[in-house]
Amino acid sequence: AQSVTQLDSQVPVFEEAPVELRCNYSSSVSVYLFWYVQYPNQGLQLLLKYLSGSTLVKGINGFEAEFNKSQTSFHLRKPSVHISDTAEYFCAVSANTDKLIFGTGTRLQVFP
Amino acid sequence: ETGVTQTPRHLVMGMTNKKSLKCEQHLGHNAMYWYKQSAKKPLELMFVYNFKEQTENNSVPSRFSPECPNSSHLFLHLHTLQPEDSALYLCASSHAAGRDEQYFGPGTRLTVT
Q1: Which of these, A43, A91, A92, lies nearest to B92 by C-alpha position?
Q2: Phi and psi (nearest 5°) for B8?
Q3: Cβ–Cβ gap A98/B45 under 8 Å
Q4: pLDDT for the residue A35
């Protein structure tokens, strides 16, 4: 069975500072990995995904993530955050099933 | 209209009421999903439909009844709900069930009184 762990429930950061949101997964088979963002009163929106190939994945809004197979991690990074990045971020994994397994989410709060 | 739409956006219902949530996708996808999102809990997958066939029922109580008349529409029929069923119900779709990325609707905020 697959599982996803998001180690930080909340991450406060000042505007223009870099940020890393951590995600670790467990799976006995190869996986696809995703990061989604949820703004207040909205559904989830795909930020980026890793399917295969290059381990560094670039997404929308200046975010990127790196797949590390040996550490079973898929951390999300942005070099300089903006107030508008304040949202809930979800890591998700998909293996040989017809469903995504989501983490519990990380609340990113950007302060001016 | 594009993407995944959900109606109503907000719903308040009593425990004896019957109501339905509607989801429609305009993306030409073949798989549709219902999720429940409660505060402080992980996103819970409820049902999966692939090519109109239900392929997943994640131990959901029978007071929730899904219906998928075609690949573009998905309903969630609700009856005799409990206060703990209050949550945000999200619909999603993907090209096919499996590893494809999912596109989410804005959700229906349900309050059971």
Answers
A1: A43
A2: -75, 170
A3: no
A4: 97
Report how many Cβ contacts below 8 Å link chain A to chain B. Answer: 50
Query: Residue B111: which of B54, B38, B5 has the closest Cα?
Result: B38
Determine the Cα–Cα distance for residues A1 and A28; give it in Å rounded to an integer: 7
CA distance B72 to B84: 29
Return the pLDDT at B1: 52
Chain A residues at the B interface, defined by Cβ less than 8 Å, are 32, 34, 36, 41-46, 49, 51, 90, 94, 97-100, 102-105
Say what the pLDDT of residue B40 is. 75
What is the mean pLDDT for each group of 10 consecutive residues in chain B (113 residues)? 88 92 95 91 90 85 94 95 94 86 94 94
The SS3 of residue A35 is strand
A105 contacts in chain B (CB < 8 Å): 42-43
